[in-house]
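Below is how a single chain appears once it has passed through the pipeline. First comes the sequence as given, then the structure the pipeline wrote out for it. We keep one example in the README because the format questions we get most often are answered faster by looking than by reading.
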Amino acid sequence: MGEELEESVNLLQRAIQLSPGRDEYFYMLAQVRMRQQKYDESRRLLGSLVKNGKEEDMRQRAQSLLETVNNIAEQMERSRIRTNPPPPSFPSQSELTDGAIPPDPGSTRPTLRRRIEGERMRGLLTEIVCNNDGLTIVVENRGQLFTFNASQPDRVQFISYGEETQSAISCGKLNTAKPVMIIYRGSTDAGSPHYGELLAVEFVKPEPK
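Resulting structure:
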């Protein structure tokens, strides 16, 4: 099918070179490009026909097909996003260490930290899962694994009291587990696979052995 469509493209392009005034060749080429899922090219051809087509009937047909192509392209994009959601936007290094309320310039008072309300669990961050469910982290605590999920990853706060590296934060399993304090809201759904709703991840110093 792909080879046949590409052959049709070559024939139509040759026809356009020989008869550049034949609007139907441009229309047919736009149809083939649509079938090839080359929507930008199809829209370009149809847009030109809508604007410069010689016959009113051709301009109307081009407009109708253009709307169809736009709808298909939008549906394909929505489907792509649902299937392959973009990874959550993790904070930069400066944002990681900016979990504090900055003091007034020249002030000698200590920096105050914003307190996030919620339950707390200390453990080792071992994995960050990014999928259609949002952001899920896996934390080891006393030999058990707990998962915490955030359906809106951009609302999760990442806080560091030290100089954590940005490389420590990415989707997938961590090469080296990181000590963290998880701030979460306990799940009220007995059927939920997660221990709670993730509110914040606070990178902390390892506990002394």
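Residues 2-83 form a domain with the Serine Threonine Protein Phosphatase 5, Tetratricopeptide repeat fold (CATH 1.25.40).

See the next section for the split statistics.
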